[in-house]
């Protein structure tokens, strides 16, 4: 299974990423790798087992699948 990444942890992004991390944990898959402009926003996701990556470039380099949730 490829590494899954997530970028964008606003209200909707954090909720969706949290559900995905819970699913990955239940399947004993690799933890979700995540990044966000404000990394502390991912603390609840980290508590669920998600793995923070402060560099978006490194996140992209490590993941085969990446979800984004951004607003402009």
Automatic annotation (TrEMBL):
<dbReference type="InterPro" id="IPR051265">
    <property type="entry name" value="HIBADH-related_NP60_sf"/>
</dbReference>
<dbReference type="GO" id="GO:0050661">
    <property type="term" value="F:NADP binding"/>
</dbReference>
<protein>
    <recommendedName>
        <fullName>6-phosphogluconate dehydrogenase NADP-binding domain-containing protein</fullName>
    </recommendedName>
</protein>
<dbReference type="InterPro" id="IPR036291">
    <property type="entry name" value="NAD(P)-bd_dom_sf"/>
</dbReference>
<dbReference type="InterPro" id="IPR006115">
    <property type="entry name" value="6PGDH_NADP-bd"/>
</dbReference>
<dbReference type="Pfam" id="PF03446">
    <property type="entry name" value="NAD_binding_2"/>
</dbReference>
<feature type="domain" description="6-phosphogluconate dehydrogenase NADP-binding">
    <location>
        <begin position="3"/>
        <end position="70"/>
    </location>
</feature>
